[in-house]
Specification:
By secondary structure, the chain is α+β, with helices and mostly antiparallel strands. Helices cover 22% and strands 31% of the residues. The chain has a single domain, classed as Aminopeptidase (3-Layer(aba) Sandwich), CATH 3.40.630.30. It contains 4 helices and 9 strands, in the order E-H-H-E-E-E-H-E-H-E-E-E-E. Strands 1, 2, 3, 4, 5, 6, 7, 8 and 9 form a 9-stranded mixed β-sheet that branches. Strand 2 and strand 3 form a beta hairpin. The longest helix has 15 residues. The protein binds coenzyme A (COA). The site of coenzyme A (COA) has 16 residues, from helix 1, strand 4, helix 3 and helix 4.
Length: 163
């Protein structure tokens, strides 16, 4: 869509504004989520997280984290948020497509996330194998993967964990 703001890599100077956008979108309850166990003590995958800017303001973000599924390296997508004033214009989809394209260009094989299947199925995500375990309670129907290489989502098993 032509009116979607420009998307660019998240820079260190953006961190506070991104944190504020995430806090506003999810509230403090986000820290109790199982996916957060994979982010705490971890570091974002260098160069893969992005922001969307409009008029110098950050209005969208998607962060990417290195993880492993068993012994298979993967990238965890999230948090992912769009400012309420900018929703339903295709920006969320553009952010997901941007981070997945960056991960693919970096040679990654697989993106994984915990999210709403109806939203992410449209972007090519599929349900993960039931043989994958998360570090806490989760509805497995919300654990979704996008293969970036042929066959990358097949045969996944074991704990989703820090790299
Ligand atoms: C989810 C979110 C990032 C989508 O951003 P967006 O820029 O509005 O996304 P898009 O424009 O690409 O898509 C919007 C469409 O997806 C739909 N959609 C949004 N969230 C959805 C969800 N959780 N499940 C199913 N559909 C959803 C909207 O209804 C909208 O449909 P419409 O255009 O017919 O109104 C945004 O709503 C947001 O920041 N929500 C709060 C944080 C959050 O839930 N993040 C995702 C965690 S997995």
């Amino acid at each position: 869509m032509s009116d979607v703001p420009a998307i660019s890599p998240e820079e260190p100077a953006d961190h506070a504004a991104v944190d504020a956008l995430i806090e506003a979108a999810f509230g403090p309850g986000r820290l109790a989520k199982t996916a957060e166990r994979l982010r705490e003590g971890n570091h974002p995958a260098p160069g893969l997280s992005v922001v969307a800017r409009e008029g110098g303001r950050i209005v969208g973000c998607a962060r990417m984290w290195p993880v492993k599924i068993g012994e298979t390296p993967a990238i965890l997508l999230g948090p992912f948020a769009v400012d309420p004033s900018m929703r339903s214009r295709g920006l969320g989809q553009a952010l997901v497509e941007a981070v997945c394209a960056r991960a693919k260009a970096a040679g990654e094989s697989l993106v994984i996330l915990v999210g709403d299947a109806p939203y992410f199925a449209k972007l090519g995500f599929e349900r993960v194998s039931a043989d994958v375990r998360l570090p806490g309670p989760v509805d497995m129907r919300r654990v979704l993967v996008l293969p970036l290489k042929a066959g990358a989502s097949g045969g996944l098993k074991g704990p989703l964990r820090h790299p």
